[in-house]
Write a structure and sequence with these properties.
The protein is mainly alpha-helical. It is built from 9 helices and no strands. Helix 3 crosses helix 4 and helix 5 crosses helix 6. It is rod-shaped and about 90 Å long.
Amino acid sequence: MYCEPKVTKNTVNNVVQETPVAALIIGKELKLEWQGIKAMLTGCYKHLSLKDFCKKVIIKHTDTHPNFAKVAQIGMVMQVISVECERSFSAQNRIKTKYRAALKDESLEALLTVNLLGPTVANFKPIKCVQTWLRRKRRRKERLMEAYKPRAVKKHLKKHFKKEYT
């Protein structure tokens, strides 16, 4: 029978101290590489866009400029615009209105995920969802299948409306 070792604060500290993490970018070497990068930017690569320049550094100059190649890789994956962030805030404001202010974080996150990443409404097929909803809990199906009938107005309200509008 396998038993996992007991993890204590001391064992975690020992592991962290024993396994050093290498620096991603070495600042001193980056300064030395800058002279070559600056010459490329003002020389043969001056006509390139920033994206194309980063690609060239990654593909052709990783051996000579490894730190700038890492910076270029980071630059290639970074989001430069905030459109996605703004879109998610707008979706949150549409979902969490003052009438739905009591939504739990998990529910709000699920609704936002469906809103932002889910299929479009045109592609949505509600039959399976409705069937699941009906099966999950005992429901008054006959009431759901009836045509909508407004509830009767109470007698004292009818009298009030008659006096007011006659």
